[in-house]
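Late entry, written up from scratch paper. The run itself happened at the end of the previous shift, but nothing got recorded in the book at the time, so transcribing now.
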Amino acid sequence: MVLRSMVGASVKRKEDPGLITGTGKFVGDLKLPGMQHVAFVRSPYAHAKILGIDGSAAAAREAVLAIVTGEDLRDQYEPVPMAGGKEALANYSHLALSVDRVRHIGEAVAAVIAVTAEDAEDAIDDVEVEWEELPASADLLGAYSGDNGPIFETRSDNIPDVGEKKTDGVDEVFANAPHVISQRIASQRVAGVPMEVRAVAAAPDAVTGGITLWSSTQIPHGVRSALATTLRLPENSLRVIAPNVGGGFGVKNALYPEEIVVSKLAQIHNMPLKWAGTRAEHFQTTTQGRSQIADASVAFDDEGKILGLRLHVIAELGIYPPFYDIAHLTGLMATGNYDIQEVDFKASNVFTNTVGVAAYRGAGRPEAIYYIERMIELVAAELGMDPADVRRKNYIKPEQFPYKTPTGSTYDTGNYEANLDTALETANYAALRREQAQKHGQDSDTLLGIGMATYVEMCGFGPYESGQVRVEPSGTVTVYTGTSPHGQGLQTTFAQIVADEIGADYEDIIVRHGDTGSQPMGVGTFGSRSLAIGGSSIVRASEKVRDKAIKIAAHVLEASPGDIEFADGEYRVKGVPSRSLSLTDIASRAYSDRLPDDIDTGLEATDFFRPADFIYPFGTHIAVVEIERDTGIVSLREFYSVDDCGPRISPLLVEGQIHGGLAQGIGQALLEEVIFDESGQLLTGTMMDYAMPRADDFPHFTINKTVTETTLNPLGAKGIGEAATIGSTPAVVNAVMDALAPYGISHLDMPLTSRKVWEAMNGG
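Output as recorded:
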């Protein structure tokens, strides 16, 4: 693709007018004729038997239409899809309204249908459930060791999935290495906290006999396919619509029980129904992220060259996880940006009596980079080397790409050392180190810490994505994409691409998405795939439109197609720029009766892009922190983010993605943690308890870039949606550890709260 006037320009987002004026349409805004409301009766226990449910008092309420238990629907649908395939279905699956037993706080066992949402919420308090509480395994290590026995009675342990990758020479390397350092490192459980929590509405479709479902989801086509199987309906009788979605971060990347129940009840009662979750329900029932404990060891020589890596990841699945992939993604990225040839990796996935752990911004890659970047810092400290020098010594060199890692990834392109140099220059790293030395000499009331992290991530997940470009007879353009954005600004970016590819006016392009009834089959938005895969399908569709436009122009201008060029947004005869047509001119002819027999009517195209492999953006982050000696309060003073995502189609949107990613990564480093007590009770179930970062927790972020194109898609673009989250967490932790080095503290687990830091400084 040739970069032209719109691609690479910072333009105002097409999405913003509706959102900032309050006219955006979310599932919660939906009002349908005759619509009733659903609320769920949920378990107060992390593990319990259901001995009986009495809904008679709730049913007696005037506004209540129905009380439905799991037993009532037992034979009405298939189990909720989850990891493990046929084994899961046979041994440890569950129904959307659970029967017999619950295994996490908030698990739904009954539903109330009422006239209003308030009526439904009030009625669930009248539903009496007789419980028999059972021992819970809410602690990851306790569940791993089986302290309370297996959570599923069909299993002998709580470890349903194990993966290993070991190179032939790793044992010898560790036996003979001059130095070996080991460290247990935790990546704590965190919650995705979108502005809009999950919400679902469903209405019967009298024409198809199926259902139209509105859902706050990242994957409308994926929800449709899974829901069709679960409800035993033909796929083409279901239509799934994702309207405006107020954030996803990966946690809206699965079919949830509420979508199944609301759809089934709408079908049974032949009426539109809606459930809009509360923030408390979100914390209890929406999948969460991270939650790994890693035992890491590195073997290295006197010059800081890493000779080998051992990493055993104990990863929490919670209960009913949609997939086992997260820990295995950690393994694929375990060596980070470094040329480490000998590796011993093991992942153990563990059930616990907590809500499922699944995708959350980065999904397995932030964990991997956090582990290796902490180990790099420990190597530097052991040898008395500057951390930048240790990284430089171990980087994969540009001439080694494409680079096959010992854990199975193939990195496409990269220039890590140049990116590091840009970051060091951007941050004025040498001056920061001089300031730090001066502070140490003055015995200041504050400690200064400088931390860095280099990251590489895997993104651009397949297997495909769709794009459709339709030029209307008036010359306006409608674009349909199989991806389903939830805040990324894809309508803007895709319009920029199409404008340059076919000569359309940017203002005349509308991008539509999130409706399985009107767009080609799509996969959805996750894993930083939307631009690289979805955008590439739109490039391919645009090329087809442009090729046809050239043929029509050749006919109108009485030239051969080979003599027509597309330049400066026009279709013209080569060497005679005065003989030209606009896209509007060509569109008018395309839908007329004045076309030759060998050119079909219309001007539109659909295409699919199937990536050959993953793509690997990278970058370097540098954090500067100050710690008050008397209180342990950590203040982030400066932050530098130098990211390489290839060409930036929309620089303004790239910066927005970086800002959001930094907020989430820094939030994990310093503040955020989901906590369950030993009985599985959620202690951080409200915004009063779960410590989200605020604007005043951040300094001004300084952003810079290097540009290394991928060869694996026509845009040359790599993902940026998750990158900043991946690099920022270890950079901040490394900065705090650097500040605490005078105290002899080499490692603390996140979040690095003031209390934790103060206790460490005071020998706690």
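The longest strand covers residues 306-318.
(Scratch paper discarded after transcription.)
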